[in-house]
Q: What sequence folds into this?
């Protein structure tokens, strides 16, 4: 039987420290000649009997163990460990621990039922990925454990790890810079190491930025939307690391809107930008680690994902027991997270979001009529409350069932009905791709609005591409 097999599921790797049936088989060959030699000695009959009983017991034991083996092409049994070695799935043991007494294993989720983040498992189970190495960490204020400890402090406080560089995404490493605001690089006042901005003079780490690290670790909380740029930073880090020959370790975190809602138009290649870095729908339904694996199908970086424990696809953020940490100035709470894709699609149209993605509307929109259209559309998990803000009519989202609420689908309906009510001018790209098309990932949604299509008809237009994406997505899921 195999004991203590550790698997980094995103990379098909495992470690084994248990005793194997193959070892017992070798011992059996040693026993047989010993038994025959002792037959010649006085009292050999009794010893022969005992030896035969021992052999019989071992044969029975091996027969039972054979259920855990496969028969190779030659007809010989092949141990599970041998199968893993051949498939490249075995994690090499940490050389630093060779000859040392192994520490008591951390309780697993099977033992405790507890949810654990990737950053909480890094040092407990995957320490060899960073031990005795110079580590660069891509993170911000959202990179904390369930108890609120910063991953920066976690790594900086470990004497076996050399934290040599930090990298911050949009809004900076402390999350206070405004949307789109240029962020400067600087030296950390306490750690004395560089804090490189990936939303300043460059959005991709340069070779110089990666020069003094052995491994690049990523730990940032996403919100599940294609246009939220933290995962674009992850993509750019993979590209840069691959070019510089640096491995990347992603500490996985949950998708706060869940892993089952996959909806919205899929981004087309001509519209790939920093606000849409790959062929994803509006709501991708993947964790940071799963997105890394999806991105890496095109990049080929040396990528390892430290998975969460206790996470399932059906979980939304509220199910994890974690406290939400504001990821950016306009995402202070979970209602803003869930409202982001539902209210933030109208860039350049005059239809805008307010109250941190909890309201949507615009001039010329009849608030009551708008609410009636949306409430009659059968959108699950939400009620729309008419609300006028100055000269703009609109609706406030009242989310009642966060599990069934579909923010991406709701956003298409909200934008389409708003166009029906005030006939706003649809922005168009020419030689420069405008923000409206960047957010949509296509110019087709604008065309559908001008054609007067219903939201149901627009859904039908983007569904084939969405189904194709779902099939590709399945190849990169961890949970």
A:
């Amino acid at each position: 039987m195999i004991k203590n097999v550790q698997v980094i599921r995103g990379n098909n790797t495992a470690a084994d420290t248990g005793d194997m049936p193959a070892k017992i088989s070798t011992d059996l060959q040693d026993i047989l000649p010993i038994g025959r030699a002792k037959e010649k000695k006085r009292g050999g009959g009794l010893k022969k009997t005992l030896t035969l009983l021992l052999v019989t017991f071992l044969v029975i034991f091996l027969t039972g163990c054979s259920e855990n083996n496969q028969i190779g092409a030659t007809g010989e049994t092949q141990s599970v460990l041998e199968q893993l070695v051949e498939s490249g799935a075995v994690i090499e043991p940490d050389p630093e621990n060779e000859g040392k007494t192994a520490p008591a294993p951390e309780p697993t989720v099977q033992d405790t039922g507890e949810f654990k983040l990737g950053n909480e498992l890094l040092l407990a189970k995957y320490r060899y990925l960073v031990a005795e190495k110079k580590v660069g960490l891509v993170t911000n204020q959202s990179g904390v454990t369930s108890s609120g400890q910063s991953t920066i402090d976690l790594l900086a406080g470990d004497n076996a790890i050399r934290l040599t560089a930090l990298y911050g995404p949009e809004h900076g490493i402390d999350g206070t810079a405004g949307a789109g605001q240029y962020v400067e690089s600087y030296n950390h006042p306490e750690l004395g190491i560089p804090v490189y901005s990936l939303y300043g003079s460059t959005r991709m780490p340069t070779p110089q930025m990666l020069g003094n690290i052995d491994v690049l670790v990523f730990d940032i909380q996403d919100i599940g939307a294609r246009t939220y740029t933290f995962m674009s930073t992850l993509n750019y880090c993979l590209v840069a690391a691959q070019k510089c020959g640096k491995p990347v370790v992603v500490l996985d975190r949950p998708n706060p809107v869940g892993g089952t809602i996959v909806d919205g138009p899929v981004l087309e290649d001509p519209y790939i930008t920093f606000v849409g870095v790959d062929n994803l729908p509006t709501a991708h339904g993947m964790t940071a680690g799963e997105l890394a694996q999806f991105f890496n199908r095109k990049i080929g970086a040396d990528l390892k994902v430290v998975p969460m424990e206790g996470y399932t696809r059906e979980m939304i953020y509220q199910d994890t027991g974690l406290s939400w940490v504001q990821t950016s100035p306009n995402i202070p709470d979970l209602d803003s997270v869930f409202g982001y894709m539902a209210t933030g699609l109208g860039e350049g149209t005059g239809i805008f979001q307010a109250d941190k993605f909890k309201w949507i509307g615009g001039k010329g929109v009849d608030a009551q009529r708008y609410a009636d259209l949306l409430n009659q559309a059968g959108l699950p998990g939400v009620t729309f409350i008419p609300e006028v803000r100055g000269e703009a009519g609109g609706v406030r989202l009242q989310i009642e069932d966060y599990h069934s609420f579909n923010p991406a689908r709701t956003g298409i309906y909200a934008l389409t009905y708003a166009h029906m009510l005030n006939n706003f001018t649809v922005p168009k790209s020419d030689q420069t791709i405008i923000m409206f098309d960047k957010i949509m990932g296509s110019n087709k949604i604008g065309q559908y609005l001008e054609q007067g299509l219903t939201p149901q008809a627009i859904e039908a237009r983007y569904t084939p591409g969405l189904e194709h994406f779902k099939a590709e997505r399945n190849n990169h899921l961890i949970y």
About this structure: The longest strand covers residues 382-389. The CA atoms of residues 115 and 321 lie 8 Å apart. Confidence is low (pLDDT under 50) at residues 1-7, 9-51, 53-95, 97-112.
